[in-house]
Amino acid sequence: MRRYLVALTIGIAACGAEITSPSAPDIDDVAVLVGAADIAVCGAGGSMETGRMLDTQQGTVFVAGDIAYTEGTAEQFRACYDPVWGRHKARTRPAPGNHEYGSAGAAPYFAYFGSNAGPSGLGYYRYHKGSWLVFSLNSNIEGAERMAQLEWLRRELATQSDCTVAYFHHPLFSSGPHGTVPPMPVVADFWRELYAAGADVVITGHEHFYERFAPQNPDGAPDPRFGLRQFIVGTGGAPMTQPVRRAPNSEAVVLTFGLLRLTLEAQSYRWDFLSVDGGAIRDSGTGSCHGKP
């Protein structure tokens, strides 16, 4: 059984040779993922604050896209992202967002993060943290690249028996303005593959606020036993946006900059959303891993 602490606060492969199992280097530290999406805008102060928060947090740093605004250029990575979150690059495992693809092929993104972003040009890979399998996926690609990624994901999930978390930029469900338009097809594909394999948690960004959903299936129906719990953590420093409605199964919305800390235990996990207001915990709870539906 999962336990929930509900806190309501108003506030997506490469062409060429097949790569069977793209991966990024693992790092030997505590089994914690900590990070956010929608991060660095030159001249905006939010990313400076969240970067300082990372100084006091252990674990692997995830970034779920829209890392360097507004086109993900080499200069924007150098001048906007590197001064605020760059000192944590060695322990960062990123996923690209749509703003990274403002530069052709997201080339500056791959150049900046190097092997930590998996094989250059793919934008997806997997690694282990403790007993968990972690997927960083690319929700920005279509056509043959999209199908190659999905085939890889399906193969990887078919052999896994661990607890599983995936992060990518675009959410399937949202209370923000992006949630009022049809989701990108690849995101629905991710959800179908992850749900069928018994994955546990999805982390996204794109909306510039924090939102947590109850476990649900890819069609949006509540599924407390086998459903994926989705977090939106577009709180890394880009200017906040407002929800435009309350989506079904939304359990918490927080309108402040901050970080999601996901503590990965043997058969369970704990989440804490830490705000820049002194690191105050604005949402927290626990969940259990589960098998296939």
What are the salient characteristics of this protein?
24% strand, disordered N terminus, Purple Acid Phosphatase, chain A, domain 2, 7-stranded mixed β-sheet, 293 residues, 5 helices
What does this structure look like?
- This protein has 293 residues and is α/β, with parallel strands linked by helices.
- The chain has one domain (32-288): Purple Acid Phosphatase, chain A, domain 2.
- The protein is 19% helix and 24% strand.
- It has five helices and 13 strands.
- A seven-stranded mixed sheet has the order 4-5-6-7-9-8-10, with no helix packed on it. The protein has a six-stranded mixed sheet with strand order 3-2-1-11-12-13, covered by helices on one side.
- A hairpin with a 2-residue loop joins strand 4 (125-129) and strand 5 (132-136).
- Helix 1 crosses helix 2 (74-85) and helix 4 runs parallel beside helix 5.
- The radius of gyration is 17 Å and the shape is globular.
- The two termini are 14 Å apart.
- Mean pLDDT is 90; it is low at 1-21.
